[in-house]
Structure formats: C-alpha cells, structure tokens
Amino acid sequence: MIDRVKRKKQNKTLPGPLLLALSLLLIFMWGCGSPRQYIRPDVDIRSIRKIAVLPLETLTTDEYAGEKIRGMVISELLTRGVDVIEPGEVTRVLRELKIRSLGGITIEDIRKIGKRLKVKAVMMGSVGAFGISRGITASYPEVSIQLMILDTSSGNIIWSAWNTAGGPSFWTRHFGTEGTTLSETAREVVKETVDALF
Amino acid sequence: MPSFHVRQDVDFGFIKRVAVLPLNNLTNERFAAEAVRQVVISELLASGLVDVVIPGEVKATIDRLGIKSVSSLNTKQIKALGTALGVQALILGSVEQFGMVRMGNISAPNVTITLMMADTGSGSIIWSVTSTGVGGGFMARHFGARTETMSETLLRVVKEAIRTLAKY
Q1: pLDDT value for A1
Q2: What average pLDDT does the segment B103-125 reach?
Q3: Band of the pLDDT at A15, cuts 50, 70, 90?
Q4: Which one of A167, B9, B87, B151 counts the least CB within 10 Å of its CB?
Q5: Distance (Å, whole) CA A163 – CA A167
Q6: Nearest-CA neighbor of B32 among B98, B113, B115?
Q7: Is A135 a residue whose pLDDT tops 80?
C-alpha cells in the first residue's frame, strides 16, 4: 500500500527530459502569436467574398516591399476563396481617378473605387519593416505589416490588423544555425494576419 | 511605465472618433513617423477605445484647410480640423528615437514617442504621454536571451502609451 502511494507521488512529478522538452517548446513559442486586430462590431466581415487590394505603402528602404507583400496578401486571400480584383484593373482605376499618393486616399476616393470596381470592400495598408536586421550575434529577417479593410459605401475602417514576424531564433543565436529567410518571414506574417480574418 | 498627463475634468466617454495626424519626425529615419503612426492607428482601433478616420482623409483635410505644419497647430486650426473630419479629438505627437542604440557590448532597438490628444471642442490638450522602450533587457545583455526586433519594441512602446489612455 505504501509502495503504491509512493509510486503515485512519483508519477505526478515530470521527468527531466519531458521538462526540458517543455522548456524548449516554450522558447520556440516565444514571439509567436496572432496579430492584434479590430473588427467593426456591426459588420459581418467574413461575408466579404470579393475585394480589391490596393497597392501597399512602403515605409522601408526596399522600395518594392509593398508590392511583394501585396502579392502574398492576394495569394492568401485567393486560397481562402475570396475573389480578388486583378491588380492591373485596380491600377487602371487609380490612374483614372488621378490618385497619385496612396497615403492621400480619401473616403470619396474609396467610394469611387468601390463603384468602378464593383466591390463592397477594399484592402489597403503599409509595410513598416522588410529587411535583414543586425542583432547581437546574428542577423535576422524582420517584417511588419499593417492591413485595413474599408467599406466602400461609408469609407469606414471595418477591419484593421498590425503584425510582425522575425527576430533571432534560439538556434541562430546560440548555435549559428540558419534561420528563416526574409521571404519565409514575409509569408509567415501575411498568413498569420489573413488567418486572423478568414 | 510611460510618463503621462490626463486632464481630470474631462470625460473621455464622449470621444468616439479621432483623427491621427502625421507625427513629427525628430529622427534620422525617413519613415519613422509614418511607421509609428500606422501602429498608433492600429492599436487605437484594436483597443476598442475609439474609431479612427482613414489617414488619407486626414491628409486631404489638412491640405484643404491650408495647414502647413501639424506640429504647431493653434486652437482655431484644431477646432477646424475637428469640424471638417467629424471627430471629437485629434491625436498628434512626435517620434524622438527610432533606431539601434549601443548598450555595452550589444546593440538594441530604441523607440521614444510622444503622443497628445487635443479636444476639438475646446482646442486644448487633454492627454499627453511620453513612452520609451529599449529592446535588449538584462537577460539579453548578460545571458544571451532573445532581444526584441525594432517592430516588437515599437509595438510595446505604443501599447504602453495607449494603455495610459485606456485607464480613463
């Protein structure tokens, strides 16, 4: 009887290797997470099945960062069954409306874009970081994006999310192993952000 | 913990919609102000505190009203922007630090921002906060723990700043 009680007590403590594995898992999970997002309460955002993705503003030294992320966003939306307007068609409408600056798109512009492209929602945003950053002992990719969906009838922001990915991993910092590439990090941040929505 | 000031005689419940003006860039990083502004907009929305006007509408209104510098707005201009944009308050401010700093033998991201809220009814400042953050903590400096990226430090600094507003 005493033996059985002892054995029960022993079973309750975690063995060393399991504890180590759990600790490593926690280290790996550090930095992972879903983006902080806003969904307008009175809007059924997930019912949007057709959208126009406007060119994203580039706030990094890589002048093509916006276009690279935009392509990934479009792919992610398409894989989730959301119909996306041809980027060329969006460019044509922006030209027709004489919209030169992405940071200067007004509510009236959003309404006009919606009417011409026959969409109820447009997505816009910016790329805040896209590059290789230098850490203490290692270089690592860093990507951060901001995406918004606007209702073309009211011009209101109905969804917004900001997300970042990258940073030096445990193995890169301590053992010099190869980490994720910039493209993989970009894909990760886009996937996580779109996952939060659809 | 950021240092902040909140006007005690103001009921923040009446503020439903705000406009975030372009921030004053006091750093050598070309895109620092706009990068911080995007995070501020996202965090204000995500916190559920207020609705935010799209940045393009704000820019167009500033141009239309002939305002040359948003870093030195007078009471009349604050009121005019509030009326034109249909908002109860404006968020303005500056980015003081946005880059890597050397801390002993390591480099770490450093971000410092100042945000203010101006009531468009009276034209006065009702909230102001200065928030700063460094990406490399004690554990990173001495035990090789993970340091934050610039984006993570930026998000933390903005979150801490907005949290002081959320308390009210």
Answers
A1: 44
A2: 90
A3: low
A4: B9
A5: 13
A6: B98
A7: no
Taking the Cβ of residue A168 and every Cβ of chain B, the question of whether any pair is shorter than 8 Å is answered with yes
Q: A111: burial class by Cβ within 10 Å (0-12, 13-18, 19+)?
A: middle
ipTM over 0.90: no
Instruction: Calculate how close chain B gets to A25, using CA atoms only, in Å.
Output: 15
As for how many domains chain B has, the answer is 1
Contact (CB<8Å) A160/B155: no
Q: What is the pTM of this model?
A: 0.86
Average pLDDT of B109-127?
96
Q: Is residue A120 domain-resident?
A: yes
Print the domain residue range for A61: 35-197
The rounded distance, in Å, linking the Cα atoms of B147 and B140 is 6
**So what's the pLDDT on residue A194?**
95
CB distance B162 to B12 below 8 Å: no
**In this structure, what CATH number is given to the domain that contains residue B162?**
3.40.50.10610
Helical residues (DSSP H) of B55-114, grouped into ranges: 55-64, 75-85
Q: What is the mean pLDDT of residues A97-122?
A: 94
Which residue range(s) make up the domain with B64? 3-166
Whether A10 maps to a domain, the answer reads: no
Total domains present in chain A: 1
